[in-house]
Amino acid sequence: MNKPTKKVPKFASEAEERAFWENHNSTDYLDWSKARRAVLPNLKPTTRTISLRLPQHLLDAIKAAANARDVPYQSLIKIWLQEKLRLAKDSGSN
After folding, report:
1. What is the pLDDT, as a whole number, of residue 4?
2. Which residues neighbour 18 within 8 Å (Cβ) at sequence distance 6 or greater?
3. Quick one: 89 exposed, middle or buried, by C-beta within 10 A (0-12, 13-18, 19+)?
4. CA of residue 92 relative to chain centroid, distance
């Protein structure tokens, strides 16, 4: 795309900018063929709260394992789930 692009105006507020982009096409202002993928390493993935019922003895064992590793038990559960999912994916691809 080699067509000349228009200059993006200065906006007084985010609301003004939002209203502008609702009525204008960004391809008139940006050459998207020169765009590069942005890397945002400090963003945390979106999380969702769930309710999980566990037998008390299982929860106690998880908490003891987490304590031995010096990590919060919820974090250890997430680590174990992710590891198990990775193993399941790897064994399923054979």
Report:
1. 66
2. none
3. exposed
4. 25
